[in-house]
């Protein structure tokens, strides 16, 4: 892997360093976002950007490396001892000397890589992550923000029931991020076809108003507790739907149109919580992304299964 050092040899190791790991193929977006946020990039190693300063909330960071250190090591055993002194569980992000790094990883407790079931408990203990820069120097974090390696989750998928793979976004949001409506709640799913999200919302026991211009998959439409409205979500009046515990949207539209839609529902005062996919064309509309982020109580994340899109969450508790 090619590493780019912006000021190689001048990284001031006294400084607080933070690492931001881009989702696969989104290095360019992460780089732009870091620039827009005024975060100084010191070096880039593939998807990993080492930056000056304390960790900030960066959307195109799939995972964030806290308190990054760059340390010399003399042998595999020495590296393993260093790691063991700094964290309980480790994962390896490969930059250089891959084989050597794997031998080091064999000598320390490692973070389990496995597929999860929907709503399975995620380990709570933090993990460290390291990478070898050379035969004599390693970079490490004793703690990443996500308890799963590289901020990614893989599921034991349901290949039978959901009509599209979009359901994985809600599985991730509910399982890894812990945002989930309770059984008996009223939810709306706009831009719902063919029905993956509506299926998830129905399986967790909510009463779903499902809205799309296109028809729902008949298998999903036949399930109980789903009221399907075949119309444009932009014409729907909040007052005609009434109070909602959760507003979900995976609608295909420009980010500024989604912001308008969301603002209409926020201003109605009828919705407690939101989770919406913001879908981008090229180039990424950072201006609107930052407007979503600025809404009080908001969090914007790039889910493992988000492609050129991110997920905006706004909950009653976080306001
Ligand atoms: C990515 S798909 C949604 C996939 C869905 N979440 C699932 O799990 O199967 C986006 C949907 O947005 C719908 N859409 C686009 N414009 C719309 C509008 N004005 N009103 C309602 N739905 C719309 C499309 O018909 C399409 O079904």
UniProtKB/TrEMBL annotation:
Q: Which domain of life is it from?
A: Bacteria
Which interval of the chain is the signal sequence?
A: none
A matching Pfam family: FtsJ
One of the GO BP terms on file: methylation
State the name under which the record lists this protein. SAM-dependent methyltransferase
**PANTHER family hit by this protein:** RIBOSOMAL RNA LARGE SUBUNIT METHYLTRANSFERASE M (PTHR37524), RIBOSOMAL RNA METHYLTRANSFERASE FTSJ DOMAIN-CONTAINING PROTEIN (PTHR37524:SF2)
Q: Which UniProt keywords apply?
A: Methyltransferase, Transferase
Tell me which species this is from. Answer: Bacteriovorax antarcticus
- Please tell me whether the keyword Transferase is annotated for this protein: yes
Ribosomal RNA methyltransferase FtsJ domain sequence ranges? 164-240
Q: Which Gene3D superfamilies match?
A: Vaccinia Virus protein VP39
Q: Which GO terms describe its molecular function?
A: methyltransferase activity
Coiled coil (residue ranges): none
């Amino acid at each position: 892997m090619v590493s780019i050092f912006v000021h190689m040899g001048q990284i001031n190791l006294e400084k607080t360093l933070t690492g931001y790991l881009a989702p696969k193929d989104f290095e360019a977006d992460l780089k732009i976002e870091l620039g827009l946020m005024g975060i100084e990039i010191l070096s880039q190693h593939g998807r990993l950007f080492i930056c000056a300063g304390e960790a900030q909330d960066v959307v195109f960071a799939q995972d964030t490396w806290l308190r990054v250190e760059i340390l010399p090591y003399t042998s595999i055993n020495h590296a393993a001892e260093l790691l063991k002194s700094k964290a309980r569980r480790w994962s390896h992000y490969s930059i250089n000397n891959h084989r050597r790094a794997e031998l080091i990883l064999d000598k320390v407790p490692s973070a389990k890589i496995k597929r999860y079931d929907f709503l399975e408990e995620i380990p709570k203990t933090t993990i460290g992550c390291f990478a070898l820069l050379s035969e004599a120097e390693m970079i490490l974090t004793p703690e990443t923000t996500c308890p799963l390696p590289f901020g990614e989750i893989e599921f034991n998928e349901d290949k039978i029931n959901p009509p599209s793979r979009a359901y994985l976004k809600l599985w991730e949001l509910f399982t890894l991020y812990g945002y989930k409506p309770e059984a008996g709640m009223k939810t709306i799913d706009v831009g719902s076809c063919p029905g993956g999200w509506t299926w998830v919302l129905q399986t967790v026991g909510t009463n779903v108003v499902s809205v799309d211009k296109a028809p729902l998959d008949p298998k999903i439409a036949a399930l109980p507790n789903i009221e399907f409205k075949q119309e444009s979500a932009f014409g729907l009046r909040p007052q005609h739907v009434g109070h909602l515990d959760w507003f979900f949207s995976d609608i295909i539209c420009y980010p500024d149109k989604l912001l308008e839609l969301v603002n209409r529902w926020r201003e109605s005062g009828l919705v407690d919580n939101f989770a919406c996919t913001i879908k981008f064309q090229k180039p990424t509309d950072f201006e609107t992304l930052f407007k979503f982020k600025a809404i009080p109580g908001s969090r914007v994340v790039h889910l493992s299964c988000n492609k050129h899109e991110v997920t905006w969450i706004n909950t009653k508790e976080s306001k």
